[in-house]
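for the recovery benchmark. tokens below, seq after
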């Protein structure tokens, strides 16, 4: 295929959709972005209008093609990735029947408890690689069974965001293994829907889309879209699937011993696995890789970068105002202040559980805790403690993953937080490992582009593609400082013991009961 061949990637995230057109060398030739908003019925009940995903995908693709510097005929494929575990009920035409229930939604807590009683966490984990948690799709489906049975009766297929966009582009009703592996209904070793689980929970397998391997060409772009966008008539559309699995590929995590950390609103930690690996304590999950026939060990942290943003928005109003006036990023001002603190934040530690804890604790009642504050501390110490607390939480999961695979020699980082060199040095010092930052800030889209490039014959395999395209920032290569690592190792032990003491004392549950009491008081006031 021509060296001028390009690939368009549609990346539908939680807060916005971006379409990027890459050259085969991984250079961004054009891109467009559009934000959208979810529907918050309460902090834990979150819906989304699926029309916004379709509209944003269409408009960003249209804009990216319009800005494309070459001949639109050089665009050789379109691929799709998206957020995971969100699902949409659609009719025979692929039209949404109702708003989607977002992955962040936690309304299905009682349904998750029902799953535990019905089959037990061990069965779910060994079959699907997932913990029983309302984060995933099955508890939300059971909530629909209970509260909206008529909707399910009218449903032709249940699609993820990725699947909805694939259907919009091609008319096909499919999902891919990476998306299916976040539903709690997909058998992770056989790469197919688990008949026993579907039967147990009365989910008709016919309403689930056909699962295909990531990197599958699922059809050609619809003729009306070909004409409107002036694209070639046989343009293939490739299913790549989950954004985080694609990000692992985009950071070159394609062989054992490699791990990536993507820190934005939350943090995702992913390590390559040649076979399914299961933690006896179910602290990390196993999921299908964007490399067909491979797996990833994955840990997620709900709130990491969002805690720093919370601090900025509530305690740095002056810096935000100054940043607007100077037309600079407020984080740059805060980051320069953090540098005035020292390793260990002068003894302050943060438990970054501002929306409950995911891996490794999986405690929905967990809350954020600043520990060790004294009158001698200043704002720089508090901000440094926030970033160090995020690193501690990540390191706990890296240690677990290493027991299930092999020692990690190198950590590759991306996401908004990775733009801050001092944060990357903190990561190296806490993990005791070399930290590399990917040059591309769009690691998910880049990974999807690589998977697609192989599908259409631009590269023979993922190793060749990754070596040819992925580059790292040589100036931001961080080597751990041994003295700092020893300090952090001591602090990490205390950090873990602090959580254990709060949990063993039932403090989190008592605090949750207090919050409910206060909320009821406010309603009556």
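predicted aa per position
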């Amino acid at each position: 295929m021509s060296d001028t061949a390009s690939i368009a990637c549609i990346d539908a995230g939680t807060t916005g959709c971006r379409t990027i057109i890459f050259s085969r060398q991984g250079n961004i030739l054009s891109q467009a972005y559009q934000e959208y908003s979810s529907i918050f019925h309460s902090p834990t009940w979150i819906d989304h209008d699926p029309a916004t995903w379709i509209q944003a995908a269409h408009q960003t693709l249209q804009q990216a093609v319009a800005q494309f510097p070459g001949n639109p005929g050089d665009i050789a494929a379109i691929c799709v990735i998206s957020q995971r575990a969100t699902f949409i009920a659609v009719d025979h035409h692929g039209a949404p029947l109702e708003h989607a229930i977002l992955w962040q939604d936690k309304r299905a807590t009682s349904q998750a408890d029902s799953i535990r009683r019905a089959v037990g966490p061990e069965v779910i984990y060994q079959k699907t690689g997932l913990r029983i948690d309302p984060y995933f799709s099955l508890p939300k489906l059971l909530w629909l069974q209970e509260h909206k049975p008529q909707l399910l009766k009218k449903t032709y297929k249940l699609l993820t965001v990725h699947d909805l966009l694939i259907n919009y582009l091609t008319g096909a009703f499919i999902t891919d293994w990476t998306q299916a592996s976040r539903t709690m209904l997909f058998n992770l070793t056989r790469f197919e829907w688990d008949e026993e689980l579907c039967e147990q929970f009365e989910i008709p397998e016919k309403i689930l889309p056909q699962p295909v391997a990531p990197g599958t060409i699922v059809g050609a772009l619809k003729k009306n879209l070909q004409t409107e966008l002036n694209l070639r008539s046989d343009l293939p559309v490739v299913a790549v699937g989950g954004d985080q699995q694609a990000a692992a590929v985009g950071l070159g995590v394609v062989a054992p011993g490699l791990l990536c950390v993507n820190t934005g609103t939350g943090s995702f930690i992913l390590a390559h696995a040649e076979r399914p690996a299961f933690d006896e304590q179910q602290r990390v999950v196993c999921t299908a890789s964007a490399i067909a026939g491979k797996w990833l060990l994955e840990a997620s942290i709900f709130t990491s970068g969002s805690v720093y943003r919370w601090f900025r928005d509530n305690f740095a109003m002056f810096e935000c105002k100054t940043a607007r006036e100077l037309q600079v990023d407020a984080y740059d001002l805060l980051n320069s202040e953090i540098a005035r603190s020292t390793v260990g934040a002068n003894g302050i530690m943060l438990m970054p559980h501002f929306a409950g804890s995911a891996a490794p604790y999986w405690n929905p009642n967990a809350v954020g805790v600043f520990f060790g504050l004294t009158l001698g501390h200043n704002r720089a110490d508090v901000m440094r403690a926030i970033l160090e607390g995020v690193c501690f939480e990540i390191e706990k999961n890296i240690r677990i993953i290493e027991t299930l695979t092999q020692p990690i020699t190198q950590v590759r980082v991306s996401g908004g937080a990775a733009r801050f060199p001092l944060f990357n040095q903190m990561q190296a010092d806490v993990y005791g490992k070399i930290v590399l930052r990917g040059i591309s800030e769009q690691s998910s889209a880049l990974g999807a582009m690589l998977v697609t490039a192989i599908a259409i014959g631009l590269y023979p395999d993922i190793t060749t593609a990754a070596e040819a395209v992925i580059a790292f920032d040589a100036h931001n290569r961080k080597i751990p400082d041994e003295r700092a690592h020893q300090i952090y190792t001591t602090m990490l032990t205390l950090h873990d013991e602090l959580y254990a003491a709060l949990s063993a004392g039932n403090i989190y549950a008592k605090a949750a009961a207090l919050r409910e009491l206060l909320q009821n008081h406010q309603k009556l006031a």
